[in-house]
Amino acid sequence: MRSRILFTAAIAAILVVISVFIWQRIKSSQDEAPIIVQNGSIDIQTIDGQWTDGNSEWINQTSGTVNANQLWVKVTSSTGTCRANGKPVRVQYSDPSVHATFTTSGVWWFAKTRITPRSGITFVDGKHLRAGSAGDGGHITEVRAQSQTCSLSPESQNVRITICSSGNVADCQ
């Protein structure tokens, strides 16, 4: 009987410690910083984390940040602003073979942002990826999130696409 009480007390103590640890991580978490895509080519920049090679995709894992397993997009240019949300998010370039598709996988706290196709996107450094070339005369033509599309004309200048993993990130509001 005594050993049963000690066993129950030990299990309860372990559960309390685990609960406190999880609560502190949730309470101190911040939303994952946005991913910035700019025109001239598809220049992809992560604010936090690092792009790593995931064999068929580029992966950005930012542990300790909230990722709602959804993506919010804000497209700004000289011709206006457009917003969309959902996943995947597809950024299309004027050359039909050049594009970048953003998605997430995993669950809330342990989610990763993924970009495909890896073979069409060049690794610049840990914070930057690129598809297309600034000197090829191309431009981003559209950004699609689920059934919502933000179209861009060739005349659009100063194109900036902000992709956020939470609707709470100010850059995507």
Secondary structure layout:
Elements: H1 2-28, E1 30-31, E2 35-38, E3 42-46, E4 51-53, E5 58-61, E6 65-66, E7 72-77, E8 80-85, E9 89-93, E10 99-105, E11 112-116, E12 122-125, E13 128-131, E14 140-145, E15 148-151, E16 160-164
Parallel strand pairs: 1-6
Antiparallel strand pairs: 2-3, 2-16, 3-13, 4-5, 5-11, 7-8, 7-16, 9-10, 9-14, 10-11, 12-13, 14-15
What are the main properties of this structure?
single chain, 173 residues, alpha+beta, 2 domains, seven-stranded antiparallel β-sheet, 16 strands, 16% helix, 42% strand, elongated
Question: Could you characterize the architecture of this molecule?
Answer:
- The radius of gyration is 20 Å and the shape is elongated.
- Mean pLDDT is 80; it is low at 23-29.
- Helices cover 16% and strands 42% of the residues.
- The strands form three sheets. It has a seven-stranded antiparallel beta sheet with strand order 8-7-16-2-3-13-12, with no helix packed on it. A seven-stranded antiparallel beta sheet has the order 4-5-11-10-9-14-15, with no helix packed on it. A two-stranded parallel ribbon has the order 1-6.
- The chain has one helix spanning 2-28; strands at residues 30-31, 35-38, 42-46, 51-53, 58-61, 65-66, 72-77, 80-85, 89-93, 99-105, 112-116, 122-125, 128-131, 140-145, 148-151, 160-164.
- It contains one helix and 16 strands.
- With 173 residues, the chain is of the alpha+beta class.
- The longest helix has 27 residues, at 2-28.
- It folds into two domains: 1-30; 32-172, no CATH class.
